[in-house]
Each structure stands twice: as structure tokens, then as C-alpha cells.
């Protein structure tokens, strides 16, 4: 992971472990203090949160004593994830409604991701999807411990004043009077069906009773809320602004500690991560404190420990309030036709969650007016023929002038329409897309049996697009350049192209593709082939390596050397040596072996003009003695060049380095003095046994 701030990473992990019970606060005398709230202390640092199983975390965060914690999360949290969810009862759904309303509708969450839900609870799934899209049932206020949501009240008040002013300005009123956002001129209607009609069963679920769970409102007279944009904007309450700072306000007089010392007031003006009593500082300066005897348990009494904790640990006041009791109520899902629109997220990701026909129709309805959606990822959802329903919603969305969709990634086990047809269908509707990824493992034998009213997209006209990255994984389909050509012609800005698991129907096909790329995609920087048999296309491989524009080329499991001669390897090396634009060459899974790896070191010889920085030789049957010989030859070339070399990264995953650990360690030690080496502790014998077992 690319960790930019370890303090934030530590406190975010600490928050998650406390919330989910991984870290038992009561078992640590330093943390088990009624004056200190671990969740409150670390919440301003949390930008990503995962809720699992029975959503216990949602119940805890919406409890009355964690009111301030939720306020902090509303300002800091950007990514909300759900993983391995189970069915929930109404009380848990009530807590989830409160959480989503505060973090999405009046918070800063911009991404909702759901993972691994083999048998999804339809009510719970639709609830999360709908609230992520910004919907809540019109006329049913969210209740926090007996009071309506203060942010909604302020928002409604601001809207009423704005509407009154508009009526006064034009001497009348019309439909626009109930606009729900400053930057939105018309009311965001609940989405229409767009060719997909939800079944009666789902309608009965959607029109069920609304959550009436209640929780106290944090809104106080001294921190007024300000109205901001609802669609695509974020709440900017004064309390939210304060929550961005990792500080804890002193709201009541602190009781004297056991040793009579007063806690020092934390100063907000010092900025983020500056407080000397921060938990991170406390944990990672323990060694220094141990040296001074502060935490030496053998020489301190309980009273001294309390004193030491008072002076050297983070403190915060609990945010709990006495008062309102929870009222009873029921939780259910609302009807989209009777819904109010709030702020929505910009990224939706669904991984390994089966979507039924009814759920797909609901998702299609939501997508049809989800104008703030920028990134959509649907992965292994068992869509089947329901892909046409999703496409219907996307086409409706594309007709909105404010549509912001820029990234679409669709992957599944079976394809229900040809990959190139799906690509053309999406790209013709969304020429503004920057990234499009379509991936299928297997071809559906029923492909082509499309529902009525869903015409073929194979002839869809594609206007000039903004596409920069295109990834296609074919389910063993033939790669016909003629089908790909309209996409390439329309994508003048294309910078990355990845073709996976395609078959080449005839020998000239790859040459036609390379010609089309040279003619229509002058800005192409990265080209990747994975699991495409290039054993008989040596001429085209060399042409690619000569390209003066490409900066990264990947031939992954392409059987490059299956039927090649030694001359082919020499030609590859000489070609790369002359290419000063190529920065990264990835050759995983091509059976290089020891002798070919050693030869590749000549790319960096004294007479080379190569600018190659990264080399990937993973899964290439490389043994420790071959790696050591490669290292020695590379060291010789570096010495000849006076130490001037641009080579910085070598990837060695899944090679046979475990066959001689001592030699492998010596080779790796010497290599790491030259470049950054990334490898793993792969068990080659077990991998071979697994290979034999599935033959």
C-alpha cells in the first residue's frame, strides 16, 4: 500500500479495531478510562470505514453516547465499505438509516463499496443502494433520539426562504419552487422505469414502512448549520468543519484525576497531527518514556500509573448525553416514486453480490437519474440477461445534461452479449467516459437471445470520445480488428489499451491492429496483451518494441518463446536497447528460464540507449543460480557505465527461488543494491502439485 501518513493509518486502524471489538479497551488500564473515548479521539482521522456481518458497527456509531463520533465521521469519512453482510432485523436497519443519512446525505462520503454477499438481503441491499443514490421517502423525516434531523430542518428552512424570494422576484410560483439544491434548476424527480418494470413483489417491499428510529440531534444553538448544495455537494456545517481537525473540544469542566492533576486543554490552533498528547505520539514514544521510568510497572503503583497516564496519554471527554430514550418503530424500504433527493455518492462498487431481476430493475431506476455518479463498478454480480436492464438505466442517465459518469467497469463470469458490442453500446451512450473496462470469463451459450425491446448495439454509432483507458477481457472470443476499429477511430485520446484472453482468427489480424493503433491513437502510452498466443507473431512483437511512443508494453502469458529461436531473443534485446522511449517491459509467464534471463541483462550494456526502468519477469521458471548470474552480468554493465543506469524496479513473483535459499538470498542481496526488488516466498513444489492435480 502507498501509505502517505502513518499517523493517520495507525489511528484509522485503531478506530476500526475498537469499533469491531478486535481491540478490547477494557483490558488495557491505560485506555480503560471514563474520561477517554477511543472512538472520539481517533474519529477525525478516519477516511475509510468497513462495516461487516450484522452491522454491529452501525448500531454502535448511532448510539447516543457516540453522537460526537458520528459528527466527526461526517466530516472525515470518504469511503464506506460493506463486507460479508448478513440479514438484519428492523432495529439494525433503523441504525443503518441514521448512519447513511448522516454520512452520505449530510456528510462527506463519496464512495460506497459492497463486497462478498452470496445471498443478499433484498431489503437491506436496496436500502443501501437507494440512500447511496440520495433517496429517502418524502414526508418521513429522519429522527435522531426524538427530534427530526437538525440539518434537514436547516436545509428546509433555507429552501423555503429561497423559494419565497424566487416567488417574490417573479410574482408567482411554479414547479421549481421545490428545487432541492442551489445548483439544480429543476426538481430531481424519482426515476422512471426506462423500459424495466419492477415486479409486484419488489413494489411491496419498496413501499413498506419507513424507519422511525430516533436519536438526539447534535445541533446546538452555538453551532448553526448552513445550507449547501444537495446534489453532489457536501454538508459544510460549522460542526463538520471542526471535525476535520484532530482535536477534542473541552465542553465541560473536567474532574480532577486521582492524583489531582488537571488535564491540559487541547488547542485547536495547532493544526492536524500537532498535538503532543496524540495517541500516535503516545504509542510510538513509549520507548523513550520507558527509559525515563514513566511506564515501568515494576516500580510504579496504581496511583502513579494513573498520574503517568494523565500526563502522557491522549484524553477526551465522552460525548454521551443523558436524556432522550429511544422510541419504538419499524424499518423498511421506501418507494422510489415517493422519495426526496439528498446528496449522493460519486462512486458505487458492487463485488461478488448476485443481483436478481428485481434488484437490477431497482438499480436501473436509480442509475437513470444518478447524475453525480462518476465511477460505477459491477463485478461478478451474475447479471446474465439483466445486463440489458442495467444498460437501459445507463442510457437514460446519458441523456441528462449534468451526467458526470467517467469510469465504468463491468466484469462477470458469463457474457450475455459479445464484448465488442457491449463496448460500443456503452461508448456510444457515454462519449465522455475516461475509463471503460469490460471483462468476462466464459461465453454464455445462450448469447444472442436478448429480451424484446433491446436491439443490438453492434452498429451503434460512436462519436468522438474522451476515452483514455480501454480494457477488454474476451471470453475466448476472436479478436476482429474490424469490430474494434470504430472504437479506436473515435478514441483519439486513448492512452492505455489492454486486451486479455482473445484469440487471433488469422495471422494478419495482429498486424492490422497495430496499423490501426499507429493511425488512430498517436497518444497511446501503455499496451498490454494477456493470455493471447503470440508465438507465431514475432514480427509484430518486434514492431511493438520499436514503437517510439509506447512507454509500457506487457506480454503476459503470451507464449512468446514457445517456438522461437535464439535469434528472436537477440532481436528483442537489440530492439529494446535502441528504444529510448520504453520505460517498462513486463514479460510474466513466458518461460524465460535461466539462460534467457541472463541474456536480458545485456539490455543495460554500455552501448545501450535504453531508458528501461522496470522489468517484470514473474512466473518464468527462474532458478536461484540463474538469478545470481543475471545479477553478476548486470553489475558488470553498471560498472562499465560508471554507475549510470536508469533501471529501478525488478519483479520476481512466483519463480523457483526456493530451490536453493542460500544462493537466492545472495542474488537478492546484491540485486537490492542496484534496484528495488519485489518478490514473494512462493512454494514451487506445492504449485507444481496443484498444477498436476487439475490436469
TrEMBL record:
<dbReference type="InterPro" id="IPR032675">
    <property type="entry name" value="LRR_dom_sf"/>
</dbReference>
<keyword id="KW-0677">Repeat</keyword>
<protein>
    <recommendedName>
        <fullName>Leucine-rich repeat-containing protein 41</fullName>
    </recommendedName>
</protein>
<dbReference type="GO" id="GO:0005737">
    <property type="term" value="C:cytoplasm"/>
</dbReference>
<feature type="region of interest" description="Disordered">
    <location>
        <begin position="160"/>
        <end position="191"/>
    </location>
</feature>
<keyword id="KW-0433">Leucine-rich repeat</keyword>
<dbReference type="InterPro" id="IPR026137">
    <property type="entry name" value="Leu_rpt_41"/>
</dbReference>
<feature type="compositionally biased region" description="Basic and acidic residues">
    <location>
        <begin position="160"/>
        <end position="183"/>
    </location>
</feature>
<dbReference type="GO" id="GO:0005634">
    <property type="term" value="C:nucleus"/>
</dbReference>
<keyword id="KW-0833">Ubl conjugation pathway</keyword>
<keyword id="KW-0597">Phosphoprotein</keyword>
<feature type="region of interest" description="Disordered">
    <location>
        <begin position="294"/>
        <end position="314"/>
    </location>
</feature>
Amino acid at each position: 500500500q502507498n501509505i502517505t501518513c502513518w499517523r493517520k493509518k495507525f489511528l484509522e486502524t485503531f478506530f476500526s479495531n475498537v469499533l469491531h471489538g478486535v481491540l478490547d479497551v477494557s483490558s488495557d488500564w491505560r485506555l480503560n478510562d471514563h474520561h477517554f473515548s477511543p472512538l472520539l479521539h481517533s474519529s477525525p482521522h478516519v477516511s475509510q470505514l468497513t462495516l461487516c456481518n450484522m452491522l454491529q458497527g452501525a448500531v454502535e456509531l448511532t448510539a447516543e453516547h457516540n453522537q460526537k463520533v458520528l459528527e466527526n465521521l461526517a466530516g472525515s469519512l470518504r469511503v464506506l465499505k460493506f463486507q460479508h453482510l448478513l440479514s438484519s432485523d428492523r432495529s439494525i436497519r433503523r441504525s443503518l438509516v441514521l448512519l447513511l443519512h448522516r454520512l452520505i446525505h449530510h456528510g462527506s462520503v463519496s464512495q460506497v463499496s459492497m463486497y462478498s454477499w452470496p445471498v443478499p438481503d433484498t431489503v437491506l441491499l436496496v436500502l443501501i443502494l437507494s440512500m447511496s443514490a440520495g433517496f429517502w421517502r418524502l414526508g418521513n423525516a429522519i429522527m435522531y433520539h426524538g427530534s427530526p434531523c437538525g440539518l434537514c430542518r436547516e436545509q428546509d428552512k433555507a429552501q423555503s426562504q429561497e423559494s419565497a424570494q424566487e416567488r417574490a422576484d417573479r410574482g408567482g410560483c411554479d414547479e421549481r419552487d421545490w428545487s432541492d439544491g442551489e445548483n439544480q434548476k429543476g426538481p430531481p424527480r424519482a426515476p422512471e422505469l426506462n423500459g424495466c418494470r419492477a415486479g409486484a413483489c419488489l413494489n411491496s417491499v419498496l413501499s413498506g414502512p419507513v424507519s422511525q428510529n430516533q436519536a438526539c440531534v447534535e445541533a446546538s444553538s452555538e453551532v448553526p448549520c448552513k445550507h449547501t448544495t444537495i446534489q453532489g455537494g457536501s454538508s459544510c456545517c460549522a460542526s463538520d468543519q471542526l471535525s476535520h481537525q484532530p482535536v477534542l473540544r473541552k465542553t465541560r469542566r473536567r474532574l480532577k484525576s486521582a492524583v489531582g492533576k488537571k488535564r491540559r486543554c487541547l488547542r485547536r490552533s495547532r493544526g492536524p497531527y500537532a498535538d503532543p498528547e496524540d495517541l500516535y505520539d503516545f504509542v510510538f514514544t513509549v520507548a523513550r518514556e520507558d527509559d525515563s521510568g514513566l511506564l515501568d510497572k515494576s516500580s510504579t503503583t496504581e496511583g502513579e500509573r494513573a498520574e503517568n497516564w494523565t500526563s502522557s496519554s491522549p484524553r477526551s471527554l465522552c460525548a454521551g448525553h443523558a436524556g432522550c430514550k429511544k422510541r419504538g418503530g419499524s424499518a423498511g424500504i421506501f418507494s422510489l416514486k415517493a422519495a426526496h433527493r439528498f446528496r449522493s455518492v460519486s462512486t458505487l462498487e458492487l463485488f461478488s453480490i448476485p443481483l436478481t431481476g428485481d434488484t437490477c430493475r431497482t438499480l436501473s431506476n436509480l442509475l437513470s437519474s444518478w447524475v453525480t455518479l462518476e465511477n460505477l463498478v459491477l463485478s461478478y454480480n451474475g447479471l446474465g440477461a439483466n445486463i440489458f436492464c442495467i444498460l437501459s438505466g445507463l442510457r437514460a442517465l446519458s441523456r441528462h445534461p449534468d451526467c458526470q459518469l467517467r469510469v465504468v467497469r463491468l466484469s462477470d463470469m458469463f457474457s450475455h452479449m459479445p464484448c465488442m458490442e457491449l463496448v460500443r453500446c456503452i461508448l456510444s451512450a457515454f462519449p465522455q467516459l475516461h475509463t471503460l473496462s469490460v471483462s468476462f470469463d466464459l461465453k454464455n451459450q445462450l448469447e444472442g437471445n436478448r429480451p424484446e425491446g433491446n436491439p443490438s448495439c453492434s452498429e451503434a454509432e460512436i462519436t468522438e470520445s474522451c476515452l483514455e483507458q480501454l480494457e477488454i477481457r474476451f471470453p475466448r472470443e476472436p479478436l476482429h480488428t474490424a469490430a474494434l476499429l470504430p472504437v479506436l477511430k473515435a478514441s483519439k485520446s486513448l492512452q492505455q489499451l489492454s486486451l486479455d484472453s482473445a484469440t487471433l482468427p488469422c495471422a494478419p489480424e495482429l498486424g492490422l491492429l497495430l496499423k490501426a493503433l499507429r493511425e488512430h491513437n498517436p497518444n497511446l502510452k501503455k499496451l498490454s496483451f494477456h493470455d493471447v498466443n503470440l508465438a507465431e507473431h514475432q514480427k509484430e512483437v518486434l514492431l511493438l518494441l520499436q514503437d517510439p511512443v509506447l512507454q509500457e508494453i506487457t506480454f503476459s502469458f503470451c507464449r512468446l518463446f514457445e517456438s522461437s529461436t535464439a535469434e528472436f531473443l537477440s532481436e528483442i534485446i537489440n530492439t529494446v536497447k535502441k528504444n529510448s522511449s520504453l520505460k517498462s517491459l513486463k514479460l510474466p509467464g513466458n518461460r524465460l528460464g535461466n539462460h534467457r534471463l541472463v541474456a536480458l541483462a545485456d539490455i543495460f550494456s554500455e552501448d545501450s540507449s535504453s531508458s528501461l526502468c522496470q522489468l517484470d519477469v514473474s512466473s518464468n521458471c527462474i532458478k536461484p543460480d540463474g538469478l545470481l548470474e543475471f545479477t553478476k552480468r548486470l553489475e558488470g554493465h553498471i560498472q562499465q557505465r560508471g554507475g549510470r543506469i536508469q533501471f529501478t524496479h525488478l519483479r520476481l513473483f512466483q519463480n523457483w527461488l526456493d530451490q536453493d535459499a542460500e544462493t537466492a538470498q545472495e542474488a537478492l542481496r546484491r540485486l537490492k543494491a542496484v534496484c528495488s526488488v519485489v518478490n514473494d516466498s512462493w512454494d514451487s513444489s506445492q504449485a507444481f502439485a496443484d498444477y498436476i492435480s487439475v490436469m
